[in-house]
Recover the amino acids of this structure.
């Protein structure tokens, strides 16, 4: 019997994220300019594209949850999802309610976990497109 992983299945129907990236980029520039003030337009677009790809690895599909994920990368730390409880929360929702899991991160993750997440500032995180393993 032939079986596929979630990631393989997603690659068969990978969405064109051009419009999502543009929408998120416009919102970030309008509402979160301070977080991206030091980034060039190209750097910002690349960062958002990577963020959307990584959010997709957690099965996020809705524009609101994609935006939350990218904003957390920009505002908290690019590797925020490496924090154990955040990674576990997002991974547990893959396949069901993934978008809702992203939208509720601020209410279910402790302040201590957010402080730890803020330490994941390695610049290589801006190139990682896979999800963190809990």
């Amino acid at each position: 019997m032939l079986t596929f992983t979630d990631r393989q299945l997603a690659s068969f129907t990978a969405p064109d994220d051009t419009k999502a990236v543009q929408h998120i980029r416009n919102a970030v520039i309008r509402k979160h300019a301070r977080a991206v003030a030091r980034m060039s337009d190209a750097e910002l677009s690349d960062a958002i594209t990577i963020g959307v790809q990584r959010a997709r690895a957690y099965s996020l599909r809705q524009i609101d949850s994609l935006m939350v994920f990218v904003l957390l990368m920009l505002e908290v730390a690019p590797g925020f999802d490496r924090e154990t409880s955040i990674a576990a929360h997002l991974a547990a929702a893959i396949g069901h309610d993934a978008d809702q899991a992203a939208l509720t991160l601020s209410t279910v993750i402790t302040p201590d976990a957010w402080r730890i997440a803020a330490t994941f500032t390695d610049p290589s995180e801006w190139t990682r497109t896979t999800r963190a393993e809990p």
